[in-house]
Amino acid sequence: MSSQAAQQFLLLAKSVRGSAAVDLVNRVLEHPDIFGFDEFLRLESLVKALKTDHLQLLSTLELFAYGTLSDYESNRDRFISLSPLARRKLQLLTLASLAVHARILPYTLLLEQLRIESVRELEDLIIDGIYAQVIRGKLDQLNKLLNVEYAIARDINTVAFDRMEDVLDKWCKNCSALLNVLKYEATKANEQKKKALDEQDKYDKEMLSMMKIIDLQAQGGGGGRRDNNENNNNLSTLQSLSNMLTGNPDSKQGGAKKTGRPTAKRFFRP
To answer: Are 134 and 151 in contact (CB under 8 A)?
Structure first.
């Protein structure tokens, strides 16, 4: 969201031409409350006016929108010479960019990227950034660190948009692949569950059928030795089925129970 000052400058920028446009852009670059510049770059009339005779100023406006102090120092011929106020603002914008990518910033990195020579000057700049609401954080003077809690979002150019699109496209492809794996595992698990239920149902039916046979034989009674043998065989079959269900290793022996060695009891007379 643009600040109130930025809105006022945007209204003026829609109608200015020539030297008035140059003056307006310079004032925008130095204004202490304006840290977003993409809306100015979207004004076709302003961009057209700068492209004609003030290409360096247009590049400088793009630098403040998307770039850092290192970009300025590495290619000064592309940009206008910055006033002290404009340079300090570019330092604050660079600080915001660094704070977005890392929550703990060592002084050594900040001194290098912000082109500052003394720790005192660096801490003054950080404090200015906190008061300007560019960042929010705490200075760890003992360990020479800046602990970042918040930083403003910089403007995003088409290159950054393309990079974000590539990242999101890869993320979507990874999600699709993961979803296919989960579907396969769910199908496999459902098949195994169905197989287990079918086996359980088959076992229950066999057990019920066998128990009915035993009940019928028991009700017939008087079958003598033959009936007893059949009952024993049926019981052995039931035990085998039970062992198969419970995974008892004795099931391989047809449900036969191991018997211990008989012990003899000795009786003593009083």
So the answer is: yes
**For residue 224, how far is the Cα from the chain centroid?**
77
Give the residue among 145, 148, 122 at the shortest CA–CA distance from 135: 148
CA-based nearest residue to 6, from 44, 43, 57: 43
Dist CA 83 CA 67 (whole Å): 17
Rounded to the nearest angstrom, the gap between the alpha carbon of residue 178 and the centroid of all alpha carbons in its chain is 14
Please, how many CA atoms are within 13 Å of residue 176, restricted to the half-sphere of its CB? 6
CB 213 within 8 A of CB 234: yes
Find where tokens 């003026």 sit.
12
Distance CA 255, CA 240 (A): 5
Euclidean distance between CA atoms 65 and 90, whole angstroms: 10
Determine how many CB atoms are found less than 10 A away from the CB of residue 219: 7
Mean pLDDT of the chain: 84
Handedness of CA 169, 171, 173, 175 (dihedral sign): negative
pTM score, whole prediction: 0.63
In this structure, the number of other CB atoms found within 10 A of the CB of residue 169 comes to 10
Residue (of 44, 53, 50) closest to 29 by Cα position: 50
Q: What is the rounded distance in angstroms from the CA atom of residue 58 to the CA atom of residue 80?
A: 9
Interval 84-104: pLDDT, tens: 999 999 999 999 999 999 999
pLDDT > 90? residue 121: yes
| The 3-state secondary structure of 48-97, one letter per residue | HHHHHHCHHHHHHHHHHHHCCHHHHHHCHHHCCCCCHHHHHHHHHHHHHH
Residue 67 or residue 4, greater confidence? 67
